[in-house]
Amino acid sequence: QLQPVESGGGLVQPGGSLRLSCAASGKDSDRYAIGWFRQAPDKAREFVGGITWSGGSSDYADSVKGRFTISRDTVKNIVYLQMNSLKPESTAVYYCAGRLVPVVSRTWRSYGYWGQGTQVTVSS
Length: 124
Fold this sequence. Notes:
Blueprint: E1 3-7, E2 10-12, E3 18-25, E4 33-39, E5 46-52, E6 58-60, E7 68-73, E8 78-83, E9 92-99, E10 113-114, E11 118-122
Parallel strand pairs: 2-11
Antiparallel strand pairs: 1-3, 3-8, 4-5, 4-9, 5-6, 7-8, 9-10, 9-11
C-alpha cells in the first residue's frame, strides 16, 4: 500500500512560486506512479501532472505546462510539485495520489491512494 502525505501549501501572490511535497511511504513505493490533482470550490477535481517512480516519466496538464515541474527524490521517497508563475485560478486544494501501476493516468479514479490535500491560495 501507499500512504501519500502532502505538505507545502499556503498563500502566495500572483506570479509567485510554491513547492509542494508528497511523501510516499509504502512497501511498493518502487513500482508506482504519483499524480497531482487539484480541486477548487464548486469545481471538479482536475489533473495537474504526474510522474512514474521508476523511470521518472512525467505528464502535465496543458494549463500548467511550462510553469509547473514534478520531480522525485528516490532517497527521501518524496515527489515535488514546483509551481511557478502562479495565477489566481490556481487556487485550490492540491492532492497527491498513488497508483500501483508505473504509468501516469490523468483520471483521478485510476488512483487508489490519496493524501489529505493541502490548500494553495493565490491572491494579492
